[in-house]
Amino acid sequence: MKKILVLMVMLAISFSCQDHLDDLRDNPNAVTSIDDAALFTKAVRSLFQGTTDASVSRFAGHYGHYFVAGSTARLPDQYGDGFDVLYNSMFSEMYGGVIRHIEEVLEITSAEDTKNEVRHSIADVIAVLGYAKLTDAFGEIPYLEGGKGKTQGIIHPKYDPQELIYEDMIARLTSSIAILKNADPSMAYPNSDPIFNNDLNKWVRFANSLRLRLAMRLRDANNTLSRQTVAQCLSEPLMETNDHNASMIETEGNGNAWYTMRTGFPSIKMSTLLIDQLQGTDDPRLSVYVSKDGNGDYNGMTNGLDDTAFGNSNFAARSDMGLALSSKESKLYVMTASEIWLLRAEAALAYDNDPAQANILYRNGIETSLNQWEVDASDRDDFMNSPAASLAGVNDELQIGTQMWVALVPNYFEGWSHIRRTGYPIIADRTEANLAQGATNGVLPKRFLYSSFELSSNNDNVLEAISRQGANKIDTPVWWDKN
């Protein structure tokens, strides 16, 4: 009997591992009878759901110092690295969600008998967003050979250098923009576009804005390509108003996943760093991003507390995530106009040496963010007349970077990437006795780890990636992270 049970467990593990490999490497293009519109919608939904998944709720939200989760979900906040199961699941779920579905759409829309370059171009934008998150999380990843197992026989996909990945993602977006600018909307997704309802002008702005995000991320890694791409982006339409925001409302299950995490277990409490920033500048987004505690105060939670300090912190009494972010019907965002205005402000300062123009763009970014959250007009005007809403000429990059961090809420993964790239807001190394230093000696983590499963199932290619990128540690920076 025991032998039978052992055999059943071994078989279950074997099938589970095969499912993982299928998600990572397979692109089931043989199923060409499936409507690519349904697959496209599914990929888009997976993309937005990913803004609240474990990569964010357990890792990026902590690393970005936006919040602290309770119970064992807070452990990554202590900068530990003992999360092999989570690293594995995040890696495989990213491939098994957005990437698997969108790769199938790309295959269908490029096949001879089902070719559709408009749909292909839109799908490429979604693919770039998915791959960008993956490579920003792990560094080198299977990109050119990822998701292509059964059709091309690539069982062990090679990992590609992040520089190559970024160059190719920018090229893909450039191609998509050129096609979509003059495309026929009837050839797109008239009834299956949950982001822009088939408005191709908005898709062009979205694709170009994403290209700008990637270009600015290269600023310290490949300044020449960054400058060239930024110039291209500024010559094409960009996101400018909140009507251009890439957002979606989750209508299935309990809706927005932050609702469950605010009302269920483990709960999430907002960070002291975020609350201090908002309170210190009388920012009206405070009441949007943060709920008051039982005493009517905004009461933040310090990131990185060791177990003893956390146990004495009265965690349950701290401020919850604001209702505007964490209600069932709250919108999920992957990109907003406010982010783009602030990227333009940074570019004007860094590339054009034009502080006056940077200040105009900076103010546009802040005001657009305030309007995004429907801040009362008088509160908005008061803040726009405050010192925080104008560049002071002392450390303008710090001001722009901090306001970007604030405006990126609730896209917490992008907030962590922004901090890694710019160093703003400044996250001090942990030296206090009550803070956990973890595996990084108190330094902000730089990436996720390749899991033991990936190391065992695709060993040669993973080791080659590690030899180029650096040790498989959470304090090894990805290629574009020079801060």
Average of the residue pLDDT scores? 92
CATH C-level class of one domain is Mainly Alpha
**Structural category:** mainly alpha
How large is the radius of gyration? 22 Å
How much helix is in the residues? Answer: 40-55%
Write down the CATH topology of one domain: Serine Threonine Protein Phosphatase 5, Tetratricopeptide repeat
Task: Write the SSE topology.
Layout: H1 2-25, H2 36-49, H3 54-63, E1 67-69, H4 84-110, H5 117-138, H6 162-180, H7 200-217, H8 223-234, E2 246-249, H9 257-263, E3 268-270, H10 272-280, H11 286-289, H12 307-311, H13 323-326, E4 331-335, H14 337-351, H15 355-372, H16 377-384, H17 396-407, H18 412-422, H19 452-457, H20 459-469
Antiparallel strand pairs: 1-3, 2-4
Helix pairs in contact: 1-4, 2-4, 2-5, 3-18, 4-5, 5-6, 5-7, 6-7, 7-8, 7-14, 14-15, 14-17, 15-17, 17-18
Short description:
The chain is mainly alpha-helical. The chain is built from 20 helices and four strands.
Q: What do these coordinates show?
A:
A two-stranded antiparallel sheet has the order 1-3. It has a two-stranded antiparallel sheet with strand order 2-4. Among the domains are: about 250 residues, Serine Threonine Protein Phosphatase 5, Tetratricopeptide repeat (Alpha Horseshoe), CATH 1.25.40; about 55 residues, no CATH class. The N terminus is likely disordered. It is mostly helical and about 475 residues long.
